Amino acid sequence: MTFSKFLNHSKRWILFVLIVGLFSGSASAIFLVSLDWATQYREQNLWIIALLPAGGFLIGWFYYKYGKISVLGNNLLLQEIYEQKNPVPLRMTPMVLLGTVLTHLFGGSAGREGTAVQMGGSLADQLSKWFDLSKKERRLILICGVAGGFASVFGTPLAGAFFGLEWMLDRKLNWSSVLPTFLTAFIADWVCQGLWGVGHTVYEISEVPSHTFINFLWVIPAAIAFGLSGKLFAESTHFFSKLFSKSISYPPLRPLIGGLLIATFVWISDSTEYLGLGVPRIVEAFETPLPWYDFLAKTGLTSFTLGAGFKGGEVTPLFFTGATLGNALSTWIPLPLSLMAGIGLVGVFSGATNTPVTCTLMGLELFGMEAGFFLALSCVIAYLASGQSSIYSSQDLSKKPRIFRRNRDKN
């Protein structure tokens, strides 16, 4: 490549990175402000939970009437990164934004990562309509959009960049993709926090024990539990999705019936702890002992909500599940409660998404370097312990290592 061609190529990608970072960061800022409003309004007006069935029908009808392939969500982005068959529609951005805000407003249990990733990916893919992109360039644009959405919604640019590169489980890392992805993630994060002033929740591990062999050994059984919890979350979501699809042929009725059952559960249990993101409960998990069943309740309610057809992400509910499970395990495992909550938060996330590097980096960005080895150990073991499962049905798990594969194949 001549110097002039290199210069033109660099200018071209600087423009792409700036556009994708600005779009994805701004979309996340709008989304987070809207989500905060919806959460506060619901908490101050709990009667609105009774409208969850109506809200579910509205979301279901809207996607049924206008969604088309947008209904595939994150799986559509994965499919396009793998195969590149269809352009990601721009309509995905407003639809998933509105659908997620309504889900949280009326009391569904969901997250925000999926929404931010879908917005980032769909906005980024519009560049393929404006510029003449090769398949390789379009693939990288999509990865940058995913990274920008993830980084800006959590305030973790390193984790966001690696998520864009890691979640497709491609063992062959294309080094030419690294710089654009990292730049997009950092720009999107700056746009969300610096330009628009939208902040993020702070979690803190208040006590990190000494780095001894015994303390590291105690992480192993906890991380196995985190991996199995991630597997349970993923399998439960797929189970409810298939159940609703097989049982109810008309899509808008699925979230209507699901919303009716969730509202009934809230009325009977007289508890709203497991609705929405559950961020206050996650913060509590780092500070004080909580009921042991919290992680099961959040897993069940979130997988049911998403399986019924409501919109939102899975990662913040995975944070909830991991932090509360770590909190519960601290009763039996002699490690500090806040550390157990921290390694659980990233461990369950790693097991459910098959992204151990991303989750380790996220742990470092959220909690600092001091707990780094505990976090990394939890993420890697949970990733392996979760087996061939993922919250993303289109994720290519054939490239994931299988424990005891040879023995199983022989049998």
Automatic annotation (TrEMBL):
UniProt entry keywords in alphabetical sequence: Membrane, Transmembrane, Transmembrane helix
Subcellular location: Membrane
Keyword Aminoacyl-tRNA synthetase set for record: no
InterPro entries linked: Cl-channel_core, ClC, ClC-type_chloride_channel
Membrane topology: Multi-pass membrane protein
Nucleotidyltransferase keyword on record: no
Main localization (coarse): membrane
Pfam families: Voltage_CLC (PF00654)
Membrane spanning stretches: 12-34, 46-64, 140-165, 213-233, 332-352, 364-385
Protein name according to UniProt: Voltage-gated chloride channel family protein
